[in-house]
From TrEMBL:
Domain GH10: 1-280
Pathways per UniProt: Glycan degradation; xylan degradation
Protein name per its UniProtKB record: Beta-xylanase
Keyword Phosphoprotein assigned: no
Keyword Transmembrane in record: no
Full-protein residues shown: 1 to 281 of 365
Gene Ontology CC annotations of this record: extracellular region
Source domain of life: Eukaryota
Annotated source species: Diplogelasinospora grovesii
GO-annotated biological processes: xylan catabolic process
Reaction(s) catalysed by this chain's protein: Endohydrolysis of (1->4)-beta-D-xylosidic linkages in xylans
Organism lineage string: Eukaryota, Fungi, Dikarya, Ascomycota, Pezizomycotina
Length: 281
């Protein structure tokens, strides 16, 4: 915990799982914060997402009106619990599929894109002072997915609902990260809409392990490039990593054979990635 509690090392933290719907409202109307309360909060994640939903949400037979009330109750309870503590909330997460279509979910099936305005309006009501974000991965390369995410922001804005930011998750692979200028370009597509942006879940994984010394150097350069892209964009407010030590990570469980995606090694030693980032700050 010495690293986490040192403000020179970490300015903000995000609970990896403890604020997700299956943790906060595992059965209807019964709210639990035992997992979400473990860390002091700043970036809060996430409310409306197709994944990690409890089965009562997934398998309910909803009408628009019953699901709207479930969404509003969930958002008001969870955001109400953390009111005043979160710099930002990921109100909606991963609503766009990788091919640029809208992602299938209980929310999309019931409302089409209408669930977005419902959720962002509920977010503003629950905590008027936090930043309300849309958050997704694979926005870092220009293509069909960021095109759709741009449309998503515009849909929320046209509905008169509040949206303050877009989170680029940035789960990347060593050696195939976007160039500094191409990432800057896509970040600016969003700031041009009047929202701020941030890298919210940055990790850069090695596809195979163990990583060679040169792969570790490349990883460091890749991290430095992402941070530099954010620094290049006036409306890019920060970079958050999705874990900091290779000792604990979601990466090997999700991407078979891959790993060591962070900036401290398994023994909490600083990797070339740490040094490269600090050299561009
Ligand atoms: C991941 C967590 O890190 C894992 O522990 C969990 O098993 C699955 O979810 N995008 C997101 C995060 O928005 O919530 C995901 O977190 C990683 C991908």
């Amino acid at each position: 915990m010495a690293i986490v509690n040192n403000k020179n090392e970490m300015g903000q933290v995000v609970p990896e799982n403890g604020q997700k719907w299956d943790s906060t409202e595992p059965s209807r109307g019964s709210f639990s914060y035992s997992q979400g309360d473990i860390v002091p909060l700043l970036r809060c994640h996430t409310l409306i997402w197709y994944s990690q939903l409890p089965s009562w949400v997934l398998s309910g037979s909803w009408t628009r009106s019953t699901l709207q009330s479930v969404i509003e109750t969930h958002i008001s309870n969870v955001m109400g619990h953390y009111v005043g503590q979160c710099y930002a909330w990921d109100v909606a997460n991963e609503a766009v599929a990788d091919d640029g279509n809208w992602r299938d979910s209980v929310f999309y099936r019931t409302f089409g894109t209408g669930f977005l305005a419902i959720s962002f309006n509920a977010g503003q009501k629950a905590d008027p002072n936090t930043k309300l974000y849309y958050n997704d991965y694979n926005l870092e390369y220009n293509g069909a997915k960021p095109d759709r995410a741009v449309e998503l922001v515009q849909i929320v804005q046209k509905a008169g609902a509040p949206i303050d930011g877009v989170g680029f998750q940035a789960h990347l692979i060593v050696g195939s990260t976007p160039s500094r200028s191409s990432l800057t370009t896509v970040l600016k597509r969003f700031t041009a809409l009047g929202v701020e942006v941030a890298c919210t879940e940055l990790d850069i994984r090695h596809s195979s392990l163990p990583a060679s010394a040169s792969a570790l150097t490349t990883q460091g350069n890749n991290f430095a490039n992402v941070v530099s892209s954010c620094l290049d964009v006036a409306g890019c407010v920060g970079v958050t990593v999705w874990g900091f030590t290779d000792k604990y990570s979601w990466v090997p469980e999700t991407f078979s054979g891959a790993g060591d995606a962070f900036i401290y090694d398994k023994n909490l030693g600083k990797k070339p990635s740490w040094t490269s980032i600090s050299s561009v700050l």
